[in-house]
Amino acid sequence: LSRQQDKKSIIHKLRNLTIVYKKWIDHREEEIPAVTAGFGADAERVAQVAKDNIVFCRKQFDRIDAGIDYLADESNSNAWKAFCLANESIAASMRIARPNSEPSWHIFQLAFILLSLPSTMERDHDDRDVLDLIWFPTGGGKTEAYLGLSAMLLFYRRLTADTPEAAAGTAVITRYTLRLLTIQQFERAATMICAANITSAKYTEFDAEKEFSIGLFVGGAATPNKLEKAAEILGGAGDDDQCTTLPIQKCPWCQSDLHQHQQSISTSTTELITPCSNSNCDFYSGLPISIVDEQIYEHPPSIVIGTVDKFAMMAWVPEMKVLFGHDQSRPDLIIQDELHLISDALGTVTSLYEGAIDYLTTTEKGRAKIVGSTATIRRAEEHVKKLFNRKLAQFPPSGISAGDSFFYQVDDTQDRLYVGLHCQGRSPKHSLSRLVGNISQANMYLDDDSKDPFYTLVMYFNSLRELGGALVLLEDDVPRYLDSLPLPEEQTPRRLNQKQELTSQLNQQQLSEILDRLDVGIDKDPDNPPVDVVLSSNMISVGVDIDRLNAMIVNGQPKNTAEYIQASSRVGRQPDSAGIVFSMYNWTRPRDRSHYERFKAFHMAFYRHVESTSVTPYASRARDRALPAVIVSMARQSIATLSGNTSGG
User: Fold this and answer.
1) Distance between the two ends of the chain, CA-based, in angstroms?
2) Of 269, 363, 489, 504, which has fewest CB within 10 angstroms of its CB?
């Protein structure tokens, strides 16, 4: 798809996608009478729902078709060129992420990009008022879809801008809710940015342009807000071990180690420079990343990846106005990953601040495009209306069967097995220690090929108190139990020496180190043994994408179903792997007992049990608490005379 000279044949191949999709829609429509006939008195009502679904499928088909027309239009050659350059960049980044696989799009990813393309590139497009939501199971490839869209936007802005200065600035803002998720996605997006720079360097027409860059925009407890603080950390004088200048441990391009002692601060350019340690790497002189707020304000990155709460600083930090651009050069794309997490109190306050962000990113031509993604949400249309004041278009759209939407079909092969345990009359701690011991020792019986995927046991807890109790069990009860097991002569007792915690108590650097350690298999490095057990809080439920994790204990039913689905989906993520999840229920809790009693029915349709999210942005208490800050943010970030600290009067 990156061969610019093959436009005619590539457009023809893209048309094949819509031809086949249209046939699929037609066939589903023909099936409605036969499928709904068995519903008796409800047949008419069910048939109407099915017809509504088909109408929406046709709307999304029309948008995909319009996206192909947009690329085919000879008067819009820049869109075609941006499409090809972005595909070249994404292919290069896929080779880094999956060196043993040929780069390829899943059909849903390519269709989503085509569907969103015109409204992302053109500020006055009607669909700018539509939030395109990727609803796909965890591990399906949502991130790559919107990274592809982002790459196309970056190249398109560069190709259509009148001057290099107009092309610079922040084009994409991506928000997350959890630190761990932010760091993981920062690494993936940084790989794409590196690839985009490598691609861009091949074309002389971009010689005058600044390089693409990416900024990590999180709280001062994680990364330094000022270069002065960064200098203290580099000099060893930093008094806060939570804050780090090196939130990622590996070069996103060549995977070589990054070292803090190689970082330096350039006073002339106001930058913290992070070089790759590999002298053969294209980024040996410095990676295109910014993690210090002061540097981000001085040199606005092409993509800003931050946490939603960081944007609450708009009322206090007038320098943030550079992220919202100027005149016609404002961010064109806002990505809200894990949309279901923007709910309850957080969602209520966030949605008020969204009013300010919407105002600051709007030009005379129109608003910014917003794209969302989630695997678990209910009543999304109402949620999006309250949160972003936009209509919703879910992708892929439903057909008439939950198991087939054309872009995905339910696979009958079992890739994740759920096992429920309910040890009546035994203490929960006793049961947990026996379960951990048996799972760990069972791994010793597997053959060498099967051992590594199940070697590291993930333990999920609903509270830090329960997690702490389990850590004591791993030091005392579990080793004694393992020693007491009757084993064949050739079998040795398992030793759980390598234990790790994955909780909010870790700083940014520790999080990165643990994620790297979890990726270490049995035979990778004799001097660096794999982790035996990782004890995690709900931090693991989003953002942990490690292929070799396939065994998990969920200790007690999580507070809501979405959390349970997200957490248990951390294992068995690869198409050729199989995960096993042991749900250990506490028999003293009525809710746990209830889940155990209807275990099979619940797990066969647990997406049906996902709770609806709630945001109430204009409730009176929410207005009292947050509306003054929103008004001040809008004034301070958009009116130059009101930006100073003493300008309020």
Assistant:
1) 57
2) 489
